[in-house]
């Protein structure tokens, strides 16, 4: 799915009314119907539920008025609260006129704020994507009132006070919704860590907006769902051979951290690599040969750390990082690797390989194009050399880093963000908090290494598929064992099923 800016969303509204020859009021009615149906699904059959609909002066408020009317028709008794304003949108005024007299409709003031008890439902239709600045005065007071209440808050389109695609001061008055109902597409703001407390659970409600317009709109950000990945992972042809899926080299592990090498190796094999050779320190030889008999072991002459780079000739892809440690001799291996890997061989760097890049910054200039890096936010901060001011700044840093180094960078977290050399950022949709556990990143590295070794996949497709399948494996594992009980080894077991879901045409 594409993530449109607030300005693009307005243009999409217009394109839709023109292409479908409908009025904007009719489009508003569609949006309201989608909200009402969602609410009815949640509410039924509790007609006694106390419902308060808070409406602002624009079209978000218009949506709220239409929902109030529809809930009334369905047998509920919503109360409407209006924010006083000098100007109202035309569609707001239209829906205000349509409001049945039986619905109690009152104007809000600092002295007239309704009690909102636990069990009550609040519909936040104060402001939507038309918000231009941070809320102050009465709107901010109303938002505070909603946030202090014990009621369940459902936001229409976006929590009021939250900007859809731009940073705002940390002290901004923003509704803390339990659920957010977004029309047709999600908004960039939903995917940023800082906003999780405002957005709550979010749902996209399709309202039939103009698909050709969406198709033809150039965007900076994508939300990666199964539909976006359809057709990107081909089924294996009957006559394919090990060469098709590539021979990968994994440099991983140090004394006490061989588990990282084992997990990455297992994930690489489950990711479908043709052949896998593992370079570990000498101490890892027996461990690897026992735990991962499918792989070949190429032990380093040193016992506790990787100190020498093997001959790279046989390999289609090289992965380096999990559990390596940050010895100076290992940094030297990274330096040689960057010199020798060339631009045709795929490269995946993770964990300590990234930390070494952070401490040996001259190496950053040696990254071959299309290198795939997989930092978590702290590692990313070390890579760019300065902390991010906020989530949007971090995204800017990600874009700048990927452009400068012509690389792909997987910034790990909830909604893992993949930065690409040409600018677009792809936010992943799969995964769960159970995956915040030791070894989870090592599994991702192994899986990505396998997909980068696969000769059929572009660097972008390999990265998108790997990140998505890793999260999906986590979701399948959590369904089996629950989130707290999930360990990285479980992810390995579910890579196969996760990839199978993506194979061929969806
Ligand atoms: N996306 C769709 O396809 C559809 C969206 N709908 C709904 O329309 C809103 C956007 O409506 P719009 O009228 O453009 O803006 P708002 O309702 O968010 O509010 C504009 C209103 O508020 C004033 N204002 C802006 N910022 C502030 C501020 N900081 N303080 C005070 N007042 C402010 C501004 O001057 C205007 O008067 C979208 O979110 C959906 O809910 C359609 O109904 C259906 C299709
Ligand atoms: K809202």
From TrEMBL:
Known EC number: 4.2.1.136, 5.1.99.6
Co-factor note (free text): Binds 1 potassium ion per subunit.
Residues annotated to bind K(+): 124, 160
Record field: catalytic activity: (6R)-NADHX = (6S)-NADHX; (6R)-NADPHX = (6S)-NADPHX; (6S)-NADHX + ADP = AMP + phosphate + NADH + H(+); (6S)-NADPHX + ADP = AMP + phosphate + NADPH + H(+)
Annotated (6S)-NADPHX binding sites: 128-134, 157, 260, 323, 376, 442
Domain YjeF C-terminal: 225-502
One Pfam family here: Carb_kinase
Binding annotation for AMP: 412-416, 441
Keywords linked to the UniProt accession: ATP-binding, Isomerase, Lyase, Metal-binding, Multifunctional enzyme, NAD, NADP, Nucleotide-binding, Potassium
Subunit composition and interactions: Homotetramer.
NCBIfam families documented for this protein: yjeF_cterm, yjeF_nterm
Function comment: Catalyzes the dehydration of the S-form of NAD(P)HX at the expense of ADP, which is converted to AMP. Together with NAD(P)HX epimerase, which catalyzes the epimerization of the S- and R-forms, the enzyme allows the repair of both epimers of NAD(P)HX, a damaged form of NAD(P)H that is a result of enzymatic or heat-dependent hydration. Bifunctional enzyme that catalyzes the epimerization of the S- and R-forms of NAD(P)HX and the dehydration of the S-form of NAD(P)HX at the expense of ADP, which is converted to AMP. This allows the repair of both epimers of NAD(P)HX, a damaged form of NAD(P)H that is a result of enzymatic or heat-dependent hydration.
Protein name as catalogued: Bifunctional NAD(P)H-hydrate repair enzyme
